[in-house]
């Protein structure tokens, strides 16, 4: 019992509950304590999952419980404070996505980990999705030749502004698994059928009251291109399609010898397909996609693998989905706004200005 990795969960809402359930289902891990500013939320999850140690102040919890890992599952505006407080105490963190409300906060979080040596990982759990892991192996083995295009596919069912903050970093994180770090972004955002302007900037809750409080957003449709090292192109669309499309959500890889398609939702035991030809071909050939065998990828859930990766990261080695990778995934999203504001031109990454592009645009008109 004493050798278990002890996890403290901060934020006992929908996702906090999921963290508790995942950790309680893992060998070698236990939930050591819970924290929420709402006594009601604490009592509900604490009673249901029989966790007696409950706190309303995360710093007090860190000092009294000294967990091995802090899982930060507050809404995005509430990530930076608890993450930095944990990292400064040498406690490793699995923080929910997107990493932060703006790049300045993301920088503070990554820096706090670097300064203390504690590890930060961002729970874009598709990072360790079996299809993504297998596709990386197959690409490394040369199955599809040279990768020339990485296409991120959105889940839809939201206006692009909200989708950027809700699902966007999951998609950009999956793209980053195949495209290294991007060197530039060119983005375009539409509102009400025209190019979006500063008058279209609003709070996420104003755009969609059912979504979370994730800061400033803008627009309904957006697209972006990215340049990865060596001339590999990235492309992503957020098209305000009215229905959620789980089957669309993932990445497509176009290679010189063949193609791979990973879908992040649905049955994770079978979510990778291979097309044994490159771009050319008639629509009639589209029946030749092949389901790929993922049975050697293990049965543990991607979030459980995120915990294991974090707990097992050796000194000096970043965990899977590290704070830096999470910041890149978020930076790819912020860059769309920055590029759009500059007339859709290519903006260099990382962005020089770390403030939220919509905050500065709104302030300057
Ligand atoms: N990785 C995924 O697939 C996935 C899925 C869903 C949500 N999320 C992310 O999880 C996060 C939480 O989303 P949610 O839907 O669970 O939100 P939620 O509103 O249901 O829960 C947040 C909880 O945090 C508590 N809280 C707020 N400030 C706090 C503080 N300072 N200290 C302690 N507790 C505090 C609130 O009282 C609330 O109970 C978001 O960042 C969201 O994007 C990730």
Structural notes for this entry:
The chain has 365 residues and is an alpha/beta fold. The protein has 2 domains: 5-126 and 302-320, 3-Layer(aba) Sandwich (Rossmann fold), CATH 3.40.50; 129-299 and 328-364, Dihydrodipicolinate Reductase, domain 2 (2-Layer Sandwich). Helices cover 34% and strands 23% of the residues. The strands form 3 sheets. Strands 7, 8, 9, 12, 13, 14, 15, 16, 17 and 18 form a 10-stranded mixed β-sheet that branches. Nicotinamide-adenine-dinucleotide binds at residues 10-16, 35-38, 41, 58, 73-76, 78, 96-97, 123, 125, 212.
Q: How many strand elements?
A: 18
CATH architect. name of the largest domain: 2-Layer Sandwich
Shape descriptor reads: globular
Q: Biggest sheet: strands, sense, closure? A: 10 strands, mixed
Could you please say which CATH topology of the largest domain applies here?
Answer: Dihydrodipicolinate Reductase, domain 2
Please give the share of residues in helix: 25-40%
Proportion of residues in extended strands: 15-25%
Q: Give the CATH H-level superfamily of the largest domain.
A: Dihydrodipicolinate Reductase, domain 2
Q: Mean pLDDT across all residues, rounded?
A: 95
Rg over CA atoms: 21 Å
Q: Spell out the helices and strands N to C.
A: EHEHEHEHEHEHEHEEEHEEEEEEEHHEH
**Ligand catalogue:** nicotinamide-adenine-dinucleotide
Number of helices: 11
Regions with little confidence, pLDDT below 50 for 5+ residues: none
Count of domains: 2
Tell me the distance between the termini.
Answer: 58 Å
Helix/strand class: alpha/beta
Question: Regarding CATH, which class of the largest domain?
Answer: Alpha Beta
């Amino acid at each position: 019992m004493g050798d278990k990795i002890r996890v403290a969960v901060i934020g006992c809402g929908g996702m906090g509950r999921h963290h508790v359930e995942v950790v309680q289902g893992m060998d070698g891990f236990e939930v050591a304590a819970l924290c929420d500013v709402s006594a009601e939320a604490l009592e509900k999850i604490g009673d249901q999952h029989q966790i007696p140690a409950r706190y309303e102040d995360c710093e007090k919890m860190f000092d009294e419980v000294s967990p091995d890992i802090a899982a930060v599952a507050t809404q995005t505006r509430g990530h930076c404070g608890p993450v930095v407080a944990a990292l400064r105490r040498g406690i490793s963190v699995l923080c929910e996505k997107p990493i932060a409300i703006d790049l300045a906060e993301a920088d503070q979080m990554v820096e706090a980990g670097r300064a203390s040596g504690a590890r930060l990982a961002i729970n874009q759990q598709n990072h360790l999705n079996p299809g993504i892991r297998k596709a990386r192996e197959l690409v490394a083995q040369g199955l599809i030749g040279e990768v020339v295009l990485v296409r991120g596919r959105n889940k839809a069912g939201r206006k692009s502004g909200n989708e950027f903050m809700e699902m966007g970093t999951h998609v950009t994180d999956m793209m980053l698994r195949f495209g290294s770090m991007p060197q530039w972004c060119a983005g375009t955002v539409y509102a009400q059928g025209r190019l979006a302007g500063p008058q279209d900037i609003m709070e996420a809750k104003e755009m969609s009251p059912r979504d979370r409080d994730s800061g400033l957003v803008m627009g309904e449709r957006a697209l972006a291109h990215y340049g990865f090292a060596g001339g590999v192109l990235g492309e992503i669309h957020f098209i305000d399609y009215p229905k959620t499309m789980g089957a669309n959500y993932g990445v497509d890889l176009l290679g010189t010898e063949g193609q791979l398609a990973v879908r992040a939702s649905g049955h994770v035991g079978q979510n990778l397909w291979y097309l044994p030809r490159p771009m050319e071909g008639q629509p009639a050939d589209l029946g030749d996609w092949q389901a790929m065998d993922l049975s050697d990828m293990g049965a543990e859930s991607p979030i459980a693998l995120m915990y294991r990766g974090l707990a097992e990261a050796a000194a000096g080695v970043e965990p899977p989905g590290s704070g830096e990778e999470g910041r890149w995934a978020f930076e790819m999203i912020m860059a769309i706004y920055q590029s759009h504001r500059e007339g859709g031109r290519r903006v260099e990454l990382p962005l020089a200005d770390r403030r939220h592009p919509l905050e500065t645009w709104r302030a300057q008109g």
